[in-house]
Amino acid sequence: MNSMIKARTLYLFCSAAPPVFEVASVIEEAQARGWDVCLGLTPSAARWLEPSLDGLAVLTGHPVRSAYKRPGDPDVWPPADAILFAPATFNTVNSWALGLTGAFVVGVAAEGLGKGLPIVAMPCANAAYVRHPQFDRSVETLRAAGVAVLYGEGGYVPDPPGRDWPERFPWAVALDAVDAAHAAREAG
């Protein structure tokens, strides 16, 4: 990359849902699109990926984070130019919309709203979970706050309970949306 061109930094945040196991290839695709990727995980997602965390840190060139830093500790990531939260589970979507920031990645995503960052989220919850009335309210709350929530036709369509098909998770759609959101911000 030309040293005169500022690298675009993408915070890729993932919850514990089956598509998280594809995160290495998603990071590689984002890097191929010109993003410097910093990977943040919910605590459950970090446990799921524990055997791969060192390799993912090497792949991104940044520590993988799943917890808040201590006061006074330096930031180990460059500032974000955009955030992609995918897969975002039922719990994550609801926590974020309600402002419940116990999880590091939810807290950073909530703060990103206040900073005016381009943020894209792609939920991953089965059809039984999304029937809960809070889910639709949470999706609408996030959309009203400026998050591009890729849910329904053209985004993530819930699977029936008990069927996890991570190979059908539309990662390319999510990355396209981040590229478009960032470009719109830069042009605007």
Commentary on this structure:
The protein has 188 residues and is an alpha/beta fold. It has a single domain (8-67, 77-187), classed as Rossmann fold, CATH 3.40.50. The protein has helices at residues 23-32, 43-48, 53-60, 90-98, 104-115, 133-144, 171-187, and strands spanning 8-14, 35-41, 82-88, 119-123, 148-149. The two termini are 25 Å apart. The mean pLDDT is 93. It comes from Streptomyces fradiae ATCC 10745 = DSM 40063. One of its GO terms (molecular function) is catalytic activity.
CATH architecture: 3-Layer(aba) Sandwich
Helix content class: 25-40%
Total domain count: 1
Note the beta-strand portion.
Answer: 5-15%
Output the radius of gyration. Answer: 16 Å
Q: In summary, what is this structure?
A:
The protein is α/β, with parallel strands linked by helices and 188 residues long.
What would the keywords be for this entry?
188 residues; alpha/beta; Rossmann fold; five-stranded parallel beta sheet
